[in-house]
Amino acid sequence: SLEFLYLGGNFITSIPPELANLPSLSYLVLCDNKIQSIPPQLAQLPSLRSLSLHNNLLTYLPREILNLVHLEELSLRGNPLVVRFVRDLTYNPPSLQELAGRTVKTRNVPYAPSDLPENLVRYLSLASNCPNPKCGGVYFDSCVRQIKFVDFCGKYRLPLMHYLCSPECSSPCSSASQSSTSQSESDSEDEASVAARRMQKVLLG
């Protein structure tokens, strides 16, 4: 019948899977330890509403955490996975030259090689299309890196790097093999929507 378990600040390095045998556990505090991974069995806690994991050594979370259907609060700040995530999202604003180049390319402003200096013509030829099909924008030097996990051959989930034109432009990437990956992208979108519904509050910092 245990509902609240506080194990913070005990230099714990691993979580015993036996915690899954506490069906009434609603609040689990494991902050300020040395935990490096979460056992998948933890997802078998049917009543868990709050999970505090901040200030540990976590670099990833198991997929099974999505099975915590009653989880409302997940604290992850101070873990390598959050630090890396925030660092990877750093975005340098585009320069005035890039903004001008984006405008020329997205609005199809006509120009000829005789209209511009050779270096600007060469610069405009380096535009990359944003992979977000709903965007239609381009980028040159300033872009956002995004990691997306996609199914591969129905057996593996591979982390793929995508480059987007701005932080607001976040969507599954379309590729030359779109027909072969459309199902996995759809699954990822469904998975994301399920996660959003179930994870009402995530404390990152």
TrEMBL record:
| InterPro entries cross-referenced by the UniProt entry | Leu-rich_rpt (IPR001611), Leu-rich_rpt_typical-subtyp (IPR003591), LRR_dom_sf (IPR032675), LRR_domain-containing (IPR050216)
- Where are the annotated segments for Disordered? 172-195
Comp. bias (Low complexity):
172-185
Q: Which GO terms describe its cellular component?
A: cytoplasm
Locate the transmembrane regions by residue number.
none
Q: Per its UniProt record, what SUPFAM superfamilies does this chain match?
A: Outer arm dynein light chain 1
Q: Which domain of life is it from?
A: Eukaryota
Q: Which UniProt keywords apply?
A: Leucine-rich repeat, Repeat
Which Pfam families does this entry report, sorted A to Z? LRR_1 (PF00560), LRR_8 (PF13855)
Q: What protein name applies here? A: Leucine-rich repeat-containing protein 58
Q: Which organism is it from?
A: Phaethon lepturus (White-tailed tropicbird)
The organism's taxonomy opens as: Eukaryota, Metazoa, Chordata, Craniata, Vertebrata
